[in-house]
Amino acid sequence: MTPTSLVLVSVGLGLLAGALITWAVFGARTAGRRRADAMRPELPEVAVELLGSLDSFAVILDASLSPSTPTRPRETTRA
After folding, report:
1. In angstroms, what CA-CA distances link 9 with 1, 5, 12, 14, 18?
2. What is the pTM of this model?
3. pLDDT tens column, 30-52
């Protein structure tokens, strides 16, 4: 194999490896975003209103005993 063809094959393999690594990184990032969105379910509007009407601190746990947070923060007004 001549040095010229060896360089061309090396560059081609490098480009192919770089493209595969880039594809894997972007694929993993997209899958991670989808999984993160699926793991953060929104509370029903009734639960948000109920939490907003409480004067004390409340924690809602889901089936895996992870704390859930309301979709909208409670607005407090002080005079």
Report:
1. 10, 6, 5, 8, 14
2. 0.48
3. 999 888 877 766 767 777 777 77
